[in-house]
Each structure stands twice: as C-alpha cells, then as structure tokens.
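Bench log, entry 3. Co-assembly request; chain sequences pasted below exactly as received.
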Amino acid sequence: MLAGLILGGMYALIAMGLTLQYGVARIMNLSYGEFLVAAAFVAHWLFTAFAVSPLLGLLVAAPAAFALNWAIYQVLLMPLVRRAKNRDTLEVDSILATFGLLFVVQGVSLVIFGGQYHSYSYLSIPLDILGSTVALNRLIALLFAAVFGLALYLALTRTRAGTALRAVAVDPVAAGLVAIDVRRASAFAFALGGALVAAGGVLISVFLTFNASMGVVFTMKALIVVILGGVGNMLGALVAGLVLGLVETTVARMVDPGLTLAANYALFLIVLLWRPTGLFGSPSR
Amino acid sequence: MLEIAGLSALYGRHLALDGVELAVSRGEIVVLLGANGAGKTTLLKAIAGLVAPRTGANVSLDGRSLAGLPPHAIVEAGVALVPEGRGIFGELTVRENLLLGAHARRARPRAAENLALVHRLFPRLQERSRQVVRTMSGGEQQMIAIGRALMSAPIVLMLDEPSLGLSPLLCSELFRTLADIRGSGIGILLVEQNARQSLKVADRGLLIETGRIVGRGTAAALEGDPAVQRAYLGAG
Amino acid sequence: MASDGAVRESVALNPASVARGGFGLLLAAALIAFPLAASGYHLALGISVLSYAVLATAWALFSGPTRYISLATAAFFGIGAYTVAVLGERLPWPAVLAVAAVIGFVVALVVGLSTLRLAGIYFVIFSFGLAELVRQVVTWYEANVHHSVGRYVFVEVTQDMIYWQLLALAALVFLAGWLVARSRLGLALRVIGEDESAAEHCGIDTTRAKLAVFALSAVFMALTGAIMAPRWTYIDPVISFNAVTSFQTLIMALFGGAGRLYGPLLGVVPLVFLFEVLGANFPNTFSIFLGIVFMLIVYALPQGVVGLAARGLPRFRTTGAGARLAERLGGFIKEPAKRQASAGTGAELLAARGLSKAFGGLVAVNALDLSIRKGEIVGLIGPNGSGKTTALNLISGALRPDAGEIRFRGQPISGRKPHRIAQAGVARTFQLVRVLGSMSCAENVVAGLAFRSPRVWNGAAGREARSLLRRVGLEDKADAPAAQLTYVEQKRLELARALALRPEVLLLDEWLAGLNPSELNEGIALVRSLRDEGLSIVLVEHVMDAIRSLCDRCIAMNAGRKIGDGPPAAVLADREVVRAYLGDADA
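Structure output for the full assembly:
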C-alpha cells in the first residue's frame, strides 16, 4: 500500500510537467519521456564523472532544460501554433512533430551514453517505515518531488503569473480578453514543463536503473495520468497518479509484475469510456 | 473616444460586416440592436481583436489605431469585452477571476481601487470570494464577468448580450449597474436582444441588419420607432 | 450515355489504353522476374521496398481518409512475426499465415471498438503505446508460460519466396485499396475524415466503417510481419515490436501522401534507399536522422509529395466496372432497415413529449412537447438561448435527451444514433454549414444518397445527384470543390444533401439567415416548393418575414419552454412572445 502510494506520488510528479505542456500549451508531447531519461543520464554522468550529488545536479539540469524547451517551443512548435486553425489541429500536428523529436532525442542519448543500462548508488540505505522497507534514496526523491509539487501548486495558485497560466488552460480565448499574452504564456508553460520533467529525471535516476529506450514507457504513463486526471487539472493529475501507482503495485503483487502496462492501459480505457473527459475533466473543453 | 469606420469582416465565407461606422464616447451608453445573424457579435469580436477585420478598417481609441492588434493588446489599450457566454474561468474562484481582470499592465496600479468598486457594485461577490465560479448561478456569473472587465480599467466596455439567461429582476439590476458604470466615466457599447430595457438606459442606439447599420438615433427616438420591432418580429 | 457526365471506364481498344496495358504487363513481368536476376543485397533491398510498400499502403488505407493517425503499425507487424515464431514449425505455412491474419484482425477489432469511439487524439495516444503493450503481454506470456523469452525461427523460406509472397501481398493491398476507394465504404471514410458529425447525419454508421477498415489494414500489417519473420533466425519481443517500424511506415506514407492510393508508394521507394544509405554510413546516429527527416516532412509537406503534384480533387468513381465489383464484394455496411411507406396527409409524423436536456446546471430544453404533421411547415422561434437548436439536436440524434421521448411515425427515436434517425427519414441542415470541402458538390450529394434507405449508388447516384443539384440551383457547380462555393451556395448544397436522404421530415437550422432580400425570396420559394412535394419542415429561424410567409404553424420557445403554438400572426402578436424577444418595458 505504501509502496503503491510512493510510486503513485512519483507518477503524479512526473506528470506535472506534461500537465503544463498539454494543459496550457496544448502540446501533446510524445518526446516527454525522452527528456526525463536524458536528464537521468546527465545526473548519472555528473555523479560518476565529477562526484556531483544529484541534488546539486538539479540546479544544473532544471534551468538548462527550461532554456532548451523554451527554444524548442519557439523554433519547432511556434510554426505549428501559427498554422493551426484550432486546438484539435494543433494537437495532431504537435503529436507528429514531437514523435519525430522523440527519435532525435533518443538518438542523441544513444550516441552520447550508449544503449546499456545505467544506474548508480546514492544513499541506498533501507529504512523501516510502517512495516514496509523503503530505501532512503526513494524517500528523498519523493520528498524533493513533493517539494517541487508543492512549490508548483503554490506558484500556480498564489501568484499572478501562475493564475494566468491556469486561465490559459481553462479558456485561451477568454484569457486573451484579460490581456494575457497567450502565446508567451504557452511558451513559458512548455519550458517550465520541460524543467520539471528534467528535475523528475534527475530524481528518479537516484534509485532506478534506466536505459535510453525507456522514454516511451514514461511518456505513456505521464499521458495516462494527465488525461485521466482531466486535462489541465493539477489536483486531478495527483489523484490519477496515485490511483495509477496503487493499481500498478496491486497488479504487480497479485497478478504479475510483467503486466503493469497492460493494467495501466485497461485503467485508461475503462475510465475514458466511463467519463470521456477524465476523472475530473470539465465537459466544456 | 472609440471610433470605427469602414469595418468589414468575414465569417467563414460570409460577409458578416459591411462598412460599419460608429463611435462611443466616455460616459455614454450606445446600444446595438438587431436580429440574430445580423452581425452584432461579429462586430464586437472584430473590435476586440478576436475576428480579423478586412484591410481598410479604421478602429481607433483616442486616435490610437487598434485594427489588427491581438486581443491582449486591445485590452491593454483600454477596450474590454464581456463576450456572449461570459468568458469567465469556470474552474477558478471569484477572487481569482476578478484579479485576473487586472492582469493588464494599465490596470495593475489601480487593482485595489477597482476591486473596491466592483465589490461596491456587486456586494454578493465579496461574500463569495473563494467560491468556484462554475458552481454559481447565471446572474452571479454575469456579475463576475462584468466585474472582471471593470478590473481592467477600461475606457470603453463592450458587452455582448449580458441579459442572456437572467430573470427579469436580475435584468433590471443589470441595467441599473450599467447606468452606474456609465456614471463613473466609462463608455459602454452594448449589444442586446432586450431592446426595451436597454433603450431605457442607453443614450444612443444603432440598428444593424445583415452586417450594415440601417438606423441611428437617440435612445428616446428609437424607443417608439416601429423599425425596431420590425427588425426583431417582422412586419405585422 | 455521357449526358450524366460521370466517368465511365472505357474498355475500348484505343492506342492510349493499349500502351498503358502493355506498360503495365511489362512492369509486372519485371517485378516478378526480379529475384531471378538479383540476389543478396539487391534482393534484400527489393524485399525491404515491398514490405514497406504494403505497410505504408495499408496504413494509409485507414489513416489516410479518416485522418485518425495510427501509431500502431509495429504492434500488428509484430503480431504476425511472433505468430510465425510460435507456430512456424507446428502448422503448414498457409495455415500460419491465416492464423496471423486472424489474430491481427481480432486485436484490431478489440482495440478499435474500445478506442475509436473516443476523440481522435486519444486514439493516437492509445495506438502509440499499443506496440509497447502487446510486447509486454507477449513477454509476460513467454516468461511465464513458455519459460523462455525469444524463439528460434526454423521455417525454411528462401529470400525469393519471401519476395514473391510480398509481391502478391502488395498486389492484394493495392487491389483492396482500389476496391475500397470505389465502394461506399471508401466514400464513408472520406466523409468521416471531412466531418464526422455530418457523416453520421448522412446515414453512415461511422463506428462500423472505421472498424472495418482499421481491421483490414491490421490484417495486411500482420501478414507482412508473418512473411518477413523467416528473415530473422531469432525473434524476441523487442525485435518484433519495434517502434521504428511504426515510425518509418508513418514517415513514408506521409512523405508520399496518404491521400491517394499510390501516394505511400511514392514515399516508400526514395525513403527506403535514403534509410539504407543513412543506416549504412551512420549506424549510431540513424535515429536522429530519422527524427529530423520526419519533422521536415511534418513542417514542409503536410500533404505529402502527392499533395505537391496533385491538382484538383481525386475523382471519386461511382460508375464503371471497378465500382460495380467493389459493390458486389463489399457488404460491410449493413443495408439500412426498410423504411415504412410514405404516410398519408395529415398524419402525425413527429411527436416529442416531455423532452428535457440540461448541460451542467443549465437547462436548455425543459419538458418540451412538439408535434409535426405531414405536409406542415412549422416554425420554431425564440430569442437567443431559448433552446431551439438543442431541440433540433435532440430530434436528429446529435444529443441524447435527459428525459422525455421522441417518436417518428410511431417508432421511438430518442437516444438512437444519428445515422439510424437519418435513415428512418429525418434529415437536417446545420446552423454552421457543414459541407465536405475537399469533395465536389456532386460527391457531397452522393454522400446523402449512398447510405440512405433504399440506397442509390453507381450511375444512378451520379444522375440523381445532378438532378438534386438542379433542384437547388447548383447544377453548374456539380464538379466544383465545395470549399470554393459562396456561403449561400454552400447552404443550398447542404440542403441538396439533406434532400438526398429522401426524408419525410426536414429540419432547417437557420437556413435562411444572412441572406439579402432577393436570396431570401428565392430561399422561401424553394422551401415552399419542398412542402408542396409532401415534405414536412421544421424551420428554426430569426427572420420573421420568412416565418410569417412560410409557416402554417409557429412554436415559440423561451428558456427551454414552449410559450406559444399556433398560426404565426397570432404567436408573434402574443404578449408573452413579444416580451420574450424585446424584453420587458416595465423594469
């Protein structure tokens, strides 16, 4: 149960960035997971080559990812935004474009870091909590992730800029009518989402063994969490992430660890057939 | 003063506006009357930058040209629109909606002062500051929409069918509020189906038919004009 | 014979067709003889070209017309390959192929049934992960039931045999594509791709149509995977369900252009060579180039190479030997239910009782009672937001009522799917015109003829389409693309398409809006003549002159309720109706 919640918490936080990218900027980013893995590689490299703690590595990875994703939005995605007649066209175009980006990023990761599995040991001390054994590094990662989540939540709800982002997610046309520069807000949201996923990658690199081709699975899970939670809904994404984590650990324990993705998909389908806009989505999209 | 001349716009392949000309000054209410499909909503959207006017249109506020600017720049200049369907952010709270209204740079220094004004006009909103807007009634949502537009410290306020879905009592409250807003020096361009009540509160009126202005006059003159009834209900 | 203007495929022996036929035979002979001349590297290249030709064409079979992007190619390919790995030594080769095809078909049906009903974007996402999902399931099965992941493929098939099988499969997929394009199924797909809502109101069972072609394309992909499997001596789930397969298929199909049958082939040939060169010279950075090429295509060539070259519209042939053959073979779209004989004058055609519909907290229609008799023109009026269009949507099936029922000719239709209601005899136009822009006017009307009860197809469809266009005054625009029509012409086209369904009740949603006085008079005359032919019409309008001159009866709505029902003059003078429109004089 605890393991399920921890896993779910990680999923929710990994999906945070995509909530921003899809909810606000309306970019269905299929290359999302690749950036997660790339950040994990960078953290690994910093640790093994320069003995830099991953927690410090965050300070490098996150801002770099922000800048990179801002550039990606302006150069790659803006032409699509300008070309799209409506939101749906933009979504399809962005899926295709980011599908291509997926291969580029995965290819770059493969070239630089190779195809083998990587991992490193950082604070892997087992702790006894509420009867289950949890590794310290997982807990620290979760703690940091929770801090980021909280910081994001506060930024989105207490600051003017954050509220503006939420407004764009709810209704971009009405947002324009309150003098919000929707394009600039979307670029910012996309870049911030990229920074968040990079932070997530650094954090999971602490306890997970990863290789260059795992990006797709992470993208899928993030997409499932975002859509299940109702697009643009942060709290919905949190709940969806927790549910996903719980379902996955239950299936892994009671049925088979090899069927977790199947369980994810089944959950995805069932919820969407029952509620087409997600668990908390609003009908007027 | 908001001045418009030679405004034409396409809605798909349809010429929705054809050479529209009008002006709205500070401290006056101008009401735009006409049947559905006549082009009223398209006109407001064209001024607000949501629909691109055809080249040659002249839309200017105090001499400064607004034609072709994106919506957020037009709000920044001082023209605010309360669209049909209200355009409020359903998932956010009353307070958040109102504060977002002051997002424009011109509005930020006067945010507190305008918020006090809005609360004075709509005391109910102050009571329900933290309530999520989606759960509120139509009348309350209308108040929030108008309040939010006021927060942007507009020079000209445009409203598209604000009486839609309101009970007669709320309607009269609405029109009283519009008179109050006019009293504070803001110019109002009002699109309405409720011709009678809006003519009672307006200073001037315009009659629009298939994209063209076909009648103008003071509100008093239009009140008794059979042309108005004809426009809505046909010759009878 | 040529007066209907439809294209007839001539079988006359003129020099052009002889030359074409001769060239075709030569090409076929060269393709068949290829393995005898080439070997090793060149044969492998030929196999590569053929396999991607099948995959890309099969992909475009579904994703081209419907515009649902499927990223699931690798899943079906892998299913075929893995079937061979598992069953290759146990069953004779043809049986293995058959099993692979069946499994592909079944998986496609399951996936399709669950995801095609969701919004297009969710379908794409689901297809994206499908390969991953199938791979996981297969890995689990192998690990737990078979106890070893990865199998050796010992099936003895020579490269030549693989080549010829692929060539045969390619011929089949082109034949299938050619037939589908000439059948009603193909038309259904194109209409769905243009405007799915309009498709449903033309009598098209969109779910069934999408499912049929999705499953068909999956079968071809699975067979390709099965035929290719013997090239690898060792197969494991990672190899067979490789996302690069989906990706390359997508690139090639999009590059060539998914809009025409031979489009993907145009993309396959150059790109296979390009990828060969890239893969040989830059083995480590291949992925990156792949991604870049793909992004270039998305940005620069949204319609593919075919889009660059093609001018005008792909002609949709409803006549000729091909179309007749397609019709005989295709039985995918069930013959719509037989319609009742025309009702007698004065009979009640449409009856709604207690109809209600709410959106969130907003009640759009509130306990509405409605009755339409044969031969009546009934006006439905009311101020903005009174619920008129919602009422129409409830009748046409675009929305399901929360409460109440609607009966047409005594049969309940409330809550039924729009295509069933359209086939029963209720047609409509839309407030925001929904014409099929990239199709010609004649084709737009044929869309209404082809799926109604009883359906009209082949030569008769072309003729009847033109006669309907003549009826609405658009006969000289028959071959023009609908997107080029003016607003008023598009409205007439939509009317022609609605009339093609041969309805008994016609719902017109603000059809007379935005017309100048002379257009308005023409429109009114047209509507009147339709009633004179026996049609019952429900007219949602704001143009009161039209209501006064056309309608026998007028129903007024306000805030979802009926507030008036009677002759127009009386209703429009009724105090409550006037108040609803103009507002209260007294505050």
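The interface with chain C takes residues 12-14, 16, 35-37, 134-135, 137-138, 161, 163-165, 168, 171-172, 175, 192-198, 200, 210, 228-229, 232-236 of chain B (CB under 8 Å). The longest helix of chain B spans residues 168-183.
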